[in-house]
Amino acid sequence: MKCGLIFDLDGTLVDSLDGIAASLNHALHASNLPTHSHDAVRGFIGNGARVLIERGTPAGSADSLIEVVEQAFKAHYDLHWPAGTIAYDGIEDLLENLQRRGHELAVLSNKPHPFTEAMVARLFPTIRFAVVLGQRAGIPHKPDPTGALEIAATLGLAPAQCYVIGDSTMDIETALNAGMRPVAVTWGFHDRERLIAAGATSLADDPAALMSVIS
Q: Considering the domain 17-84 in this protein, what is its CATH number?
């Protein structure tokens, strides 16, 4: 049966931790603020750039400081993300297999839209994603279902015909809010226990297992 497969990006299709951590710490250092370990940054990811910066700056930081750090982060990330971002092993083969089977593929990320488009185009040039959406001004980000429902409408599919596939509780909540089927992958940024607590009943530990869950 033809399905809409809506993939998260960071922590699901790509390992972007090195790039995000490098740009965040560069921006923090530029403002004479404490930097963070990769493990700490891993816990900051998932709710978009603004929340990443809010979590990375000291508690009680002024909005003006957060804005400065956010702009410095985006400027650095724009230039340097390719050096710290790779597709997870087996993901390209998975997507090509799903594409051959006739499934509609899409990406929905809380990463700013320009970065999302650039990353997908660079890392998956042979994959025909029907829709690629990042965080856009005026559109609420995940777990609000607006983006997921927009994708379903664009694909001409009912929400029940779509999966949301991601590594975070945000993705599970998005699927449930949209009336779609959630699938959690365990190789990303949120631990298995958090994913199950959020409502994940289908989990995949590697791309081969993900193929089995979907098909």
A: 1.10.150.240
